[in-house]
Design goal:
Layout: E1 8-13, E2 16-22, H1 32-37, H2 39-43, E3 51-55, H3 61-73, E4 76-80, H4 86-90, H5 94-101, E5 105-107, E6 119-121, H6 132-148, E7 154-160, H7 164-172, E8 177-181, H8 186-196, E9 203-204, H9 218-231, H10 240-253, E10 260-265, H11 272-282
Parallel strand pairs: 2-10, 3-4, 3-6, 4-5, 7-8, 7-10, 8-9
Antiparallel strand pairs: 1-2
Amino acid sequence: MTYTNSPIEKINFNNHEIFVKRDDLLDVDFSGNKARKFYYFLKHDFPNITNIVSHGSAQSNAMYSLSVLCKLRGWKFDYYVDHIASYIKESPSGNYKEALKNGMNIHEEEFPKQLDENTMFINEGGALKEAQYGLELLAQEIITWAEQNCYENLKVFLPSGTGTTALFLQKFLPFPVLTCACVGDEKYLEKQFNDLEKTNHPIILQRKKKYHFGKLYKEFYETHKDLLEQTNIEFDFLYDSLGFIVLEDYLNSLEDNNSKILYIHQGGILGNVSMIERYKHKYEKEV
């Protein structure tokens, strides 16, 4: 498997024509922006490495993708979390359940600061320089598609967690990359950019409302439902719902929009299994 060359589809969402780069379709197991970020570790040789250590939340998309990577490479995978909710332990679902199936060893404690020579540490969310390798390939796919269709006025949009994907896409693309902060605020996202690259940052679109990552919002559920009904594509609750809200606000604010919009579908829909359960519990009567 090459895990590249995902298809691009045209959709119409709330009367806006948008192209969608379907990185969620790269592979059944290894897909989305995490597959792009971790592609370097799949394609390069690490003769001394037998173990991967990472950390984050117990339903992280990166956690699941790393479990797939380690399964493909035959590496042991140790993942460290601050806390695992009791309901997740009692009834495993989503990324947590599937990562355990892939052989992940999860530890409810702080990750070790000292690692042996056979262990490689991968930072939370895949915010690392090596992510450039796979994201440059993604950028080249976008450039080729734009050239074939003579789209010179293209704008690329994707919601951001660490912002790594948006940052490196902007580095390799001749088109403007637009994004919005999903984890933390705009200042947090700018700091994440600066930690990796000091210049040539994507354009951060402002949100009209402050959102707390992982919290349930009725407009997220409604946007997710509208997207599925209008496009027949399942998007992620945590990132894509907010992403389309911000993108729609942006498009509605333009007096004359002659640009083509390419939205990057970054996968993560495995996490929807646990999210929809939470939404049904919170909005049982409405949902």
